UniProtKB/TrEMBL annotation:
This is Pyrroline-5-carboxylate reductase. The gene is proC. It is found in: Cytoplasm. GO terms for molecular function: pyrroline-5-carboxylate reductase activity. Its EC number is 1.5.1.2. Signal peptide: none annotated.
Length: 265
């Protein structure tokens, strides 16, 4: 039996625990740490998983999934260092933090796999990109893929691409939420009740996402299929281009990448 401890039971940590249970893991195989007592009690009550201190998790678990905020990593690594052995796999879900940080702070030989997930994990639709560190083997990578497949899709990328992944898919859901928010406001501006505008836009987003996922066509082709000559859509596209929306999106994602690099330092 492989014991898995999730260090930090916030939204991502809790979603992973729930996904592992749904994927067939038993509560006895799982542990978690959480610094907020109310949240810890809620997790235990809801899932039947034991909450422990970081040091105990390090001693008992075969896999440690670090799901704390990047700025909170220092005390976690300090607590882990004396307790983690080379047989323990460390999986980092912390945005921007390189495997070299863990390898430097933890005992020599500890395998580390870096992961960039995103918040659709809470509905089992995460996109997670993983990168093995110096001591991680193909077996470690396969195990991490298996664990994360319970909450969405997984791809492997070189670690040098992780900052770009963070900017694109890690932060990506926020960009879609931002766009949906703006479109709902536009519906209200045009005289629709908020509830109607929200229903129209959310379902349109769901449908468009399914078309993208299931189609072999490039997004440009799918967009052109909606864009009739001299029609409503092309007039809207002209305004988007006039206001530099495409360029703004490129700049925004580049800025997110730059911030990910800063976090890693």
């Amino acid at each position: 039996m492989t014991t898995i401890a999730v260090l930090g039971a916030g939204k991502i940590g809790e979603a992973l625990l729930a996904g592992l249970l749904k994927g067939g893991r038993s509560a006895d195989e799982l542990l978690f740490t959480e610094r907020h007592p109310e949240q810890a009690a809620r997790i235990t009550d809801r899932y039947g998983i034991a909450g422990v201190e970081v040091e105990e998790a390090a001693k008992r678990a075969d896999v440690l999934v670090v799901a704390v905020k990047p700025q909170d990593i220092d005390p976690v690594l300090t607590a882990l260092a004396p307790a983690v052995g080379p047989g323990t796999l460390v999986v980092s879900l912390c945005a921007g933090l390189p495997t070299s940080l863990y390898e430097r702070r933890l005992p020599d030989g500890v395998p580390v796999v870096r992961v960039m997930p995103n918040t659709p994990m809470v509905v089992g639709e995460a996109m997670s990109a993983i990168s093995p560190g110096t001591h991680a083997t193909a077996g470690h990578v396969a195990l991490v893929k298996e664990l994360l497949s319970s909450v969405g899709q997984v791809i492997e990328v070189p670690e040098s691409q992780q900052d770009a992944v963070t900017a694109l898919s890690g932060s990506g859901p926020a960009y879609f939420f931002y766009l949906v928010e703006a479109m709902i406001d536009a519906g209200i501006l045009l005289g629709l009740p908020r509830a109607v505008a929200e229903k129209l836009i959310v379902q349109s987003a769901v449908g468009a996402a399914k078309m993208l996922a299931q189609s072999t066509e490039h997004p440009v082709i799918l967009r052109e299929a909606v864009t009739s000559p001299a029609g409503t859509t092309i007039n809207a596209i002209r305004e988007l281009e006039k206001h530099g929306v495409r360029a703004a999106m490129l700049d925004a994602i580049e800025a997110a990448r730059d911030r990910s690099v800063e976090l890693g330092k």
